[in-house]
């Protein structure tokens, strides 16, 4: 038997008495398990393998979907997560301008069904974010998904803006191709985020980017498909989580 008060489990075990006035749900023949946590997701990003890799999907989502369509997509994805047993997600960017915060609030208000959301708002990134080379007239698309930083002062202001916009966590794209956030900028991001008790999640691919993230003292490194041994040791010493995103392309 499991006794729940509000949103908390009060007691669990055999032989418990049913509290007076409690609603009883008979789960005999079923398996009861804790809610699952998805530590890295993008509820407001449309993903179609037929379109190619991440860059194509992210760019087409921004260019072709209105904020209203992305909000409806996020509501659909959130409901599907909840129905699959995922009760908490960390939505790490690619949600437009604060779309993840809006979805978090809608779920909190009971307007739509979905998991608890740890929102990151727009990711901090070097010039261009995760998009490839765009023509000048298309540069405005970058601002829909990323806050570009080029200096330490930019980095601090970007964290402050994310917190103002409702971020629970700060997401940083450490590198995309040759574009890399510097160690000094990363340290400023971590310092400013930790000052207001926010954790920092770093998208980092390859030796240099993972080393920058670890030296700066981020709280988690995302993806990290290849990590040198010295960086792994640094992560262990600093208690930095690795959030792998490996997945089967065919099921």
Describe what this molecule looks like in 3D:
The chain is of the alpha/beta class. The chain has two domains: 84 residues, Amidohydrolase (Translation Initiation Factor IF3, 2-Layer Sandwich), CATH 3.30.110.90; 130 residues, TIM Barrel, CATH 3.20.20.140. It is built from eight helices and 13 strands. The strands form four sheets. A six-stranded parallel beta sheet has the order 7-6-8-11-12-13. Helix 2 packs across helix 3, helix 6 packs parallel to helix 7 and helix 7 packs parallel to helix 8. The longest helix has 17 residues.
Short description:
With 251 residues, this protein is of the alpha/beta class.
What order do the helices and strands come in, and which of them pair?
Layout: E1 2-5, E2 8-12, E3 36-41, H1 54-64, H2 67-83, E4 86-91, H3 99-109, E5 116-119, E6 123-125, H4 140-145, E7 146-148, H5 152-165, E8 169-173, E9 175-176, E10 179-180, H6 183-195, E11 199-204, H7 207-216, E12 220-223, H8 229-238, E13 241-243
Parallel strand pairs: 3-4, 4-5, 6-7, 6-8, 8-11, 11-12, 12-13
Antiparallel strand pairs: 1-2, 9-10
Helix pairs in contact: 2-3, 5-6, 6-7, 7-8
């Amino acid at each position: 038997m499991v006794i729940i008060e509000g949103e908390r489990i009060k007691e669990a075990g055999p032989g418990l008495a049913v509290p007076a006035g409690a609603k009883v749900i008979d789960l005999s023949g079923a398996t009861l398990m804790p809610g699952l946590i998805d530590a890295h997701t993008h509820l407001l990003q449309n993903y179609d393998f037929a379109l190619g890799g991440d860059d194509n999907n992210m760019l087409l989502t921004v260019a072709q979907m209105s904020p209203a369509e992305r909000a409806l997509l996020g509501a659909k994805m959130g409901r599907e997560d909840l129905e699959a047993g995922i009760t908490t997600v960390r939505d790490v960017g690619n949600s437009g301008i604060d779309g993840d915060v809006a979805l978090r609030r809608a779920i909190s208000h009971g307007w739509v069904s979905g998991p608890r959301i740890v929102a990151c708002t727009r990711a901090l990134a070097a010039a261009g974010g995760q998009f490839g080379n765009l023509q000048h007239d298309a540069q405005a698309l970058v601002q829909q998904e990323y806050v570009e930083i080029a200096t330490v002062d930019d980095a601090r202001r970007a964290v402050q803006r994310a917190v103002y916009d409702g971020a629970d966590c700060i997401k940083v794209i450490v590198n995309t191709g040759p574009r890399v956030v510097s160690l000094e900028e990363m340290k400023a991001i971590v310092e400013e985020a930790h000052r207001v008790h926010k954790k920092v999640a770093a998208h980092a691919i390859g030796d240099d980017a993972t080393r920058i993230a670890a030296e700066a003292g981020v709280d988690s490194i995302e993806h990290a498909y290849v990590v040198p041994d010295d960086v792994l040791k640094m992560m262990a010493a600093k208690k930095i989580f690795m959030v792998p995103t490996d997945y089967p392309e065919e099921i």
